[in-house]
Design a protein that fits this description.
- There is one protein chain.
- This protein has about 500 residues and is an alpha/beta fold.
- The chain folds into two domains: about 1-255, P-loop containing nucleotide triphosphate hydrolases (Rossmann fold); about 270-485, L-amino peptidase D-ALA esterase/amidase (4-Layer Sandwich).
- The chain has helices at about 40-45, 70-75, 90-95, 115-125, 140-155, 170-190, 200-205, 225, 230-235, 320-330, 405-425, 460-485, and strands at about 1-10, 15-25, 30-35, 55-60, 65, 75-80, 160-165, 190-195, 210-215, 215-220, 240-245, 250-255, 275, 280-290, 300-310, 340-345, 350-355, 360-370, 390-395, 400, 440-445, 455.
- The strands form five sheets. Strands 13, 14, 15, 16, 17, 18, 19 and 21 form an eight-stranded mixed sheet that branches. The protein has a six-stranded mixed sheet with strand order 6-7-8-3-9-10, with helices on both faces. A four-stranded antiparallel sheet has the order 2-1-4-5, with helices on one face.
- Helix 4 (about 115-125) runs antiparallel to helix 5 and helix 11 runs parallel beside helix 12.
- The longest helix has 25 residues, at about 460-485.
- It is elongated, with a radius of gyration of 31 Å.
- Bound molecules: adenosine-5'-triphosphate.
- Adenosine-5'-triphosphate binds near residues 37, 38 and 42.
Length: about 500
């Protein structure tokens, strides 16, 4: 739909944009990224004919852009510039209606039903209909921005060139606007080329990204291939970490600050694990990087308070999450700073130990209710009802773990637990075979992220050895403790 070949141009003799080539298909959304002054706006200005090109080609629907008259060009390409000059006071509707000028002819107004419909639709999509009779200068920056986007949409051109369309917009309006633009691209086959400052928004909404550095293409491709830590560091000179978006297969990046603040050194000790009236508690002075399958705040996060709550064996609540949240609130725990598990085992049957290794130490705490344990290889024969009985395992690590080490720590701890059940001959009461866990086991790996860097946590690494020994020992002891409490004999 739009093809740019070896395009160069700028404001004086020296080109600002140099040798840029790309093509964009019908219905595609291309994001242009790059640091301040890299030439993003200049590139859009050259494509839209606001600035003359020095060399290269811009082809629109197979024809050189210069072959279009001004009006024909405006029927093909709608432009949202970065800065809007509005010398005359117009109402919002009149401003949006200016987008229809390529379709007006003659000295008498030829305003048609189609024009009216396009204006109404564009105002609707950008949420500015309620201001239609208000003078544009009376609106806030973000509201004005939406009016100018409406003007570009009203133009109903097959190509949209947008320079920072979300400038001044709050997050809800950013979402609404970019949803609209993306939907227009998909439903109406509109081709969109948009400059972004926000790399995450661009990665989320664009099919492909073009990264400019000093007026030249530094990289171009699908967001996964452009939003790379090394690439962003190279082009922007900023330290970042990329992560997957939680709902879409798109990369998102986070800044890694270079702060000079002194970080307080701390470590987790065995004595930090306390037995309260109805729960096991650990409160750390600093947040720990945590991954868990807890009831409250499962997944990955940073937390200071860890709760393993003992409930009665007949605890039957429809909305466990909510009831548990109320419980934590009543105890005064900060809900966003707490990870909480549940068990039918009484807190005094927790087994806690500290293990010293070459790199530092770990603390393990386990409660093991194994009355209804399950052999995972036979569980397909069972009904889907959960059974009372849970093994809750906490592993606190005084060290700095890589992401790989976090996942390996989960595996190593699970293997150690399974081995403990095997050696203790914990049986699945339904199949009669050796159990591998229970139907509701929870596991937590939490790390101070201070001290020695620990890239791996497999069974023969220093960390893996401690986890293997610690989880195995504490699980065996917790099974003994449970059996003693319920009067079960091995
Ligand atoms: N009207 C102008 N006359 C001369 N030079 C200009 C003009 N506008 C921009 N420039 C120069 O062109 C270079 C690229 O500017 P441009 O606005 O294209 O960058 P950008 O990537 O859009 O930056 P930003 O992220 O800050 O919006 C800058 O060095 C700028 O100083």
């Amino acid at each position: 739909m739009l093809q740019v070949e070896n395009l160069s141009g700028g404001y004086g003799k020296e080109p600002i944009v140099r040798n840029v080539s790309f093509h964009v298909e019908k219905g595609e959304v291309l994001g242009i990224l790059g640091p301040n002054g890299s030439g993003k706006s200049t590139l859009l200005k050259i494509i839209s004919g606001i600035l003359p090109k020095q060399s290269g080609k811009v082809m629109i629907a197979g024809k050189p852009s210069g072959a279009y008259s001004q009006k024909q060009f405006a029927q093909q390409v709608a432009v949202l510039p970065q800065l809007h000059a509005h010398a005359f006071s117009h109402s919002v509707k009149d401003t949006v209606a200016l987008g229809r000028y390529p379709y007006q002819s003659g000295i008498f107004s030829s305003w048609s039903e189609l024009d009216e419909q396009a204006v109404q639709e564009a105002m609707n999509h950008t949420g500015v209909t309620r201001y239609e009779n208000t003078a544009i200068e009376l609106l806030s920056g973000g509201e004005q921005q939406r009016v100018f986007v409406a003007q570009a949409l009203a133009q109903q051109a097959p190509i949209l060139l947008l320079d920072e369309p979300t400038n001044h917009l709050d997050i809800a309006h950013q979402q609404q606007l970019l949803d609209t633009i993306r939907n227009q691209a998909r439903q109406k086959g509109i081709t969109v080329i948009s400059v972004f400052h926000d790399i995450n928004l661009a990665a989320l909404y664009c099919d492909r990204l073009l990264l400019l550095k000093n007026g030249e293409v530094a990289s171009m491709g699908v967001p996964q291939d452009v939003v790379l830590e090394s690439e962003i560091h190279h082009v922007y000179n900023a330290r970042v970490k990329t992560q997957p978006h939680p709902e879409m297969p798109k990369p998102q990046m986070t800044l890694l600050p270079n702060l000079q603040e002194k970080v307080e050194q701390f470590c987790v000790k065995k004595a930090d694990v306390m037995i309260q009236e109805d729960h096991v508690l650990l409160q750390s002075s600093q947040p720990l990087k945590t991954i868990s399958s807890a009831v409250h705040n499962a997944g990955l996060g940073w937390y200071r308070t860890f709760v393993n709550r003992g409930v009665r064996a007949d605890y039957m609540i429809d909305d466990v999450q909510r009831e548990n949240t109320e419980y934590l609130r009543a105890l005064g725990y900060h809900l966003t700073d707490t990870v909480a598990m549940m068990t039918a085992v009484s807190p005094e049957h927790v087994e806690v130990e500290e293990y010293e290794g070459e790199f530092g130490s770990i603390v393990v705490a386990v409660t093991a209710g194994v009355g209804n344990a399950v052999d995972v290889s036979k569980s397909w024969q069972r009904e889907d009802i959960p059974y009372i009985g849970t093994i809750n395992t906490w592993v606190f690590i005084n060290g700095e773990l890589s992401e790989e080490a976090f996942v390996q720590a989960l595996i190593t701890a699970t293997e150690a637990k399974v081995k403990a059940l095997q050696d203790e001959q914990v049986k699945d009461p339904e199949s009669g075979t050796v159990a591998t866990g229970t139907s509701t086991d929870s596991l937590l790996i939490a790390s101070t992220q201070q001290g020695e860097y620990l890239p791996y946590a497999g069974p023969i690494t220093q960390l893996g050895k401690l986890i293997g020994k610690g989880v195995y020992d504490c699980t065996v002891r917790a099974i003994h403790s449970y059996r003693l409490a319920v009067g079960e004999h091995t």
